[in-house]
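Before the break, one more example. Copy the sequence into your notebook; we will annotate it together after we see the structure.
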Amino acid sequence: MATHPLRIDPPGTLLTDLYQLTMLQGYFERGMFDMAVFEFFARKLPPCRNFYLAAGLEMALDFLEGLRFSQAELEWLRGQGQFKAPFIDYLAGLRFTGEVHAMAEGTPFFADEPILRVTAPLPEAQLVESRLINLLHFQSLIASKAARVVLVAAGRLLVDFGLRRSHGAEAGVYAGRAAYLAGFDGTATVLTGAQFGVPLYGTMAHSFIQAHDSEDKAFEHFAHSLPGSVVLLIDTYDTEVAAHKVVALAPRLAASGIRIRGVRLDSGDLGAHARKVRKILDDGGLGDATIFASGNVDEYLIARLVEEGAPIDGYGVGTHLDTSADAPALDCAYKLQEYAGKPRRKHSEGKATWPGRKQVFRRFDAQGLCCGDTLTLEGDNAGGTPLIMPVMRQGKRLQPSPTLEEVRARTRAQLATLPVTLRGVLAGTAYPVQVAPALEALAREADRLVGLGSQEAAP
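Here is what the structure looks like once it is written out:
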């Protein structure tokens, strides 16, 4: 092992698993440079997900275009004593030269449907596995959670509040992007705003109130400090008493040209408090002031509050969003499907895969709602709209990246095609995904090539 640490910020090519490098050395020494096809897909959906939402493609393409080992990384690898000099020299010139086919970001997808396919010389396609999974898994995970919130919130303001409990800095930043892609209105994470142009939202913390000798003074000081965006947190002490203080303060602020835009609730029975506060504000002449709620909010709570008619205009969703608390991981994989022109297939119990380069065709009913998919081989027209398209060739994007606003608009249109049974928080009718005969036949051929001709075709 190395005797000195290597600090790399931002993450470099060493952000991978050790076995990627040990396998690469084996491929290198045996001249295994034929073309390989790997696909990223989810094996199954948990009961609390009716669909997944593809996200993270832009980060994945950025990674592939910039793939290279720095001199510092190469020297660190030399110091490990595990890798031979010719192999280190090979790594120095390694770049991604392959092709990528993918579903567009914001596309709903289902079990066994690949959302990204890499076709490249075996060492290149193998090396990128860990980071591609890392990028695609996390953003698809959060976008899928966020989409559920968007669908049940029925147009209410939604803000990502999850940075402080996200699993690391990159996760916090990317969660804000994924949530916005899925339809959230903005984020509280400043770096997400700076890096991706996501609108920023923020109010105040309880500590601001507590730092003042009186709640009234805290409200007044905050309003004069930020006169264009006065949203006051009113549950530090007594929620309804604070609401009356807001009403009393409003005329004094109005004399200075400052309008109270809203109040925020962050604890207790949000529905009950919202009803009482709404009446206090309305009776006090603040009928246009909004009520924004946060504090352990998720799609289940929002769905209930919406159904009950709680007078809440928007929600800050934090921990449950940025950790995808009810389904904190996709059961996903990046698997070899073809090598040197031959179909390849994993046959492990419970983890069998479909071989070959695949395409997904989606069918729509007369109302424009998706009604079924067919998983088949590339070149086999199964009818419907093909979802997997070329996005990279010879290691370069085929066209400029869409803006995040364009991706967001596309996502909104895609979510609108989901059947009603998939839009709620409860388990809906399973979406039909058929496997085409051509793919079943290739699976049998792949089994025959490795002496498993008598095995069943289906994973």
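The first strand starts at residue 35 and ends at 44. The mean pLDDT is 95. Try to locate both features in your own notes.
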